[in-house]
């Protein structure tokens, strides 16, 4: 696994590096630590961060450090494209600029939108990853349109998670697979039992949401990993943020926004809103 | 297939003809209702608002009341602001229909939240956009800002349609008292809307192949325009809401999508009232409907652009509160009956 760790020469680099160490410890592979400076004078400013990275990641066999100059997001994207990485780990905030408070998460969102691989945005106070909240909308799975799926197959979030991130799991994680049903009855006479049902009831009834969760749980079956399905009813964004906070998760996993033009134009970009509003590390799977 | 389409086209033509006939009859008979409005003391915009609201409850439809308001205005029974307020009241009353059907399901033992949510959303969104829209519209009417905007081909259209319905309307006027002509017109317009609803291609929407689309969460602006477009064709908010049912296999719709859809629908639902104003050959009546649409559009666009998330949360919280307990529901139901009565009596 090839991991790109981005440092900003800020105090929050420490937590990014420690989380990188944890991931590298599980996944192995190569890590490149990248520091981006605005101009040549910044090289001296970022060098101590790279030195600190070499200390913290001393046990990583295949470690490289690199400095790039220019626009931070553009340079990270260029490095990601040239280096064929599997995962980018980046801390937030990107600057200690006060203006950034008025547009939180904008660089991370831009990075996620354009990155060729999955991105882990480190924010809040990261801890060892034990409790994971995986938010599955059902895109690319049983909830997606069968015709559309057959025409343009795209793997489900769980399939992508299992393929890309499974090797990062220690085998002691507690994974909650969350599906939010924000639906209401479109008319007065609609049978609405499923609009109030818990995950287990939906699985028993073999409803589309139940089938999604059943398949997701099956996909995560591995020694030591506890996977449990969860359904919440309400607005998608609110319910994800609420569950992330109340469940005290160490990591939230979501899928990236679909890239087709019509989807960008018509669909609400919930991944962006979650990324901006969440208060803990978030992994965006591509 | 062709036979079905021809039947629908026939229904459409018949409903249009009956609509024109109804407007003509109501126009001729409206003056006969003047004693009724005097008895009910419909003198102020508040009275008109309450009158339109209760009238729509009584006949379980908004569009005929809006058309009636225009004929009252045409006959000089109410003034411009009164007609404007009555049309607003008609929409508030009309949005009660979905709630009323849901209430019947609750009485039959169905779940309260599932049965009432859509009706409550429809009524609450309508009330929260139309009541501020009332103030904006009153200001527009006072300033006469839209008075110059008129449909140029309106006179030609009304002269053609007038000839088509003249024999029947003349006979009705000759045989019946004015108030009865109005009531016949009201009956005909209700029937014409009923016929029009049957023209909609409901069968093709059943268990549709685009069911997956109902599972997606759209941008609010997208749903706003979709709601406006669907209602422009169906001319009724309750019909355009019912179109959502077969779009999903289980009749579910994302709550994120519903509110902007209703907001869009609430603007173009006036297209039939606009047509009624053209048929009346009354430019100020046309202005009243245009101002209605314009003011609701302004309020809706402001909400969507400035504080949509806050608005969405507030509406959904209110709906949850109403459906949480029988007492809350009873309070709400009492409120939506008492408020128009108080307005009428004010």
Q: Kindly estimate the percentage of residues of chain B that lie in beta strands according to DSSP.
A: under 5%
- What is the CATH superfamily of the largest domain in chain A? HUPs
Please give the CATH architecture of the largest domain in chain A.
3-Layer(aba) Sandwich
- CATH fold group of the largest domain in chain A: Rossmann fold
The helix-strand sequence of chain A is EHEHEHEHEEHHEEHHEHEHHE
Main sheet characteristics of chain B: none
Low-confidence stretches of chain B: 203-207
- Low-confidence segments of chain A, ≥5 residues, pLDDT <50? none
Shape of chain B: globular
How many strands appear in the DSSP assignment of chain B?
1
Largest sheet of chain A: 10 strands, mixed
Question: Helix fraction of chain B?
Answer: over 70%
- The geometry of chain A reads as globular
What does this structure look like?
The complex is a heterodimer of chains A (286) and B (346). Chain A contains eleven helices and eleven strands. Chain A is of the alpha/beta class and 286 residues long. Chain A has a ten-stranded mixed beta sheet, sandwiched between helices. In chain A, β2 (30-37), α2 (42-56) and β3 form a beta-alpha-beta unit. Chain B has one domain. Chain B is built from 18 helices and one strand. Chain B is globular and about 55 Å long. Chains A and B meet through β8 of A and α6, α7, α13, β1 and α14 of B.
């Amino acid at each position: 696994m090839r991991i790109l760790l981005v440092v900003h020469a800020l105090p929050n680099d420490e937590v990014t590096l420690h989380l990188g160490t944890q991931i590298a410890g599980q996944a192995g592979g190569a890590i490149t630590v990248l520091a981006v400076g605005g101009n040549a004078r910044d090289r001296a400013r970022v060098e101590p961060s790279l030195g600190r990275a070499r200390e913290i990641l001393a046990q990583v066999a295949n470690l490289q450090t690199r400095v790039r100059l220019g626009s931070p997001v553009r340079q990270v994207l260029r490095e990601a494209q040239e280096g064929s990485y599997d995962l980018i780990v980046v801390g937030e905030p990107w600057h200690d600029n006060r203006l950034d408070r008025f547009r939180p998460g904008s660089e991370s969102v831009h990075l996620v939108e354009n990155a060729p691989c999955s991105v882990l945005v480190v924010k809040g106070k990261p801890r060892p990853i034990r409790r994971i909240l995986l938010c599955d909308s059902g895109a690319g799975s049983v909830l997606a349109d069968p015709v559309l799926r057959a025409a343009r197959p795209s793997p489900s979030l769980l399939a992508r998670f299992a393929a890309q991130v499974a090797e990062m799991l220690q085998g002691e994680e507690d994974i909650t697979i969350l599906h939010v049903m924000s639906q209401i009855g479109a008319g007065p006479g609609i049978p609405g039992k499923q609009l109030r049902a818990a995950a287990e009831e939906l699985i028993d009834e073999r409803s589309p949401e139940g089938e999604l969760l059943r398949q997701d749980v099956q996909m995560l079956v591995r020694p030591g990993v506890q996977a449990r399905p969860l359904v919440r009813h309400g607005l998608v964004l609110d319910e994800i943020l609420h569950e992330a906070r109340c469940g005290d998760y160490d990591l939230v996993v979501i899928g990236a926004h679909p890239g087709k033009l019509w989807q960008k134009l018509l669909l609400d970009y919930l991944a962006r809103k979650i990324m901006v509003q969440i208060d803990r590390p978030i992994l965006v799977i591509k | 297939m062709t036979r079905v389409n021809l039947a629908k086209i026939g229904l459409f033509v018949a409903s249009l003809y009956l609509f024109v006939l109804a407007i003509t009859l109501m126009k001729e008979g409206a003056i006969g209702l003047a004693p009724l409005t005097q008895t009910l003391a419909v003198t102020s915009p508040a009275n008109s608002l309450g009158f339109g609201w209760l009238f729509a409850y009584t006949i379980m439809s908004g569009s005929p009341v809006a058309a009636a308001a225009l004929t009252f205005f045409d006959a000089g029974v109410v003034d411009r602001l009164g007609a404007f307020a009555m049309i607003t009241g008609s929409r508030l009353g009309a949005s009660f229909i979905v709630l009323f059907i849901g209430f019947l399901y609750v009485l039959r033992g169905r779940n309260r939240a599932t049965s009432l949510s859509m009706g409550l959303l429809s009524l609450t969104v309508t009330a929260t956009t139309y009541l501020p829209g009332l103030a904006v519209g009153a200001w527009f009417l006072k300033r006469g800002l839209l008075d110059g905007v008129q449909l140029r081909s309106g006179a030609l259209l009304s002269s053609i349609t007038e000839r088509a319905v003249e024999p029947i309307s003349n006979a009705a006027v000759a045989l019946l008292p004015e108030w009865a002509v109005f009531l016949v017109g009201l009956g005909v317009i209700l029937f014409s809307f009923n016929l029009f609803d049957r023209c909609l291609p409901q069968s093709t929407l059943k268990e549709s192949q685009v069911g997956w689309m109902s599972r997606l969460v759209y941008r609010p602006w997208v749903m706003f325009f979709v709601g406006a477009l669907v209602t422009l064709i169906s001319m009724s908010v309750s019909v355009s809401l019912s179109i959502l049912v077969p779009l999903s296999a289980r009749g579910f719709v994302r709550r994120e999508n519903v509110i902007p859809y209703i907001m869009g629908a609430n603007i173009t639902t006036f297209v039939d009232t606009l047509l009624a104003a053209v048929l009346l050959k009354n430019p100020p009546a046309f202005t009243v409907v245009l101002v209605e649409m314009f003011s609701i559009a302004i309020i809706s666009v402001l909400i969507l652009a400035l504080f949509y998330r806050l608005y969405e949360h507030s509406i959904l919280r209110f709906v949850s509160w109403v459906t949480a307990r029988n007492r809350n529901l009873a309070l709400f139901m009492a409120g939506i009956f008492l408020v128009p009565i108080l307005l009428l009596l004010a």
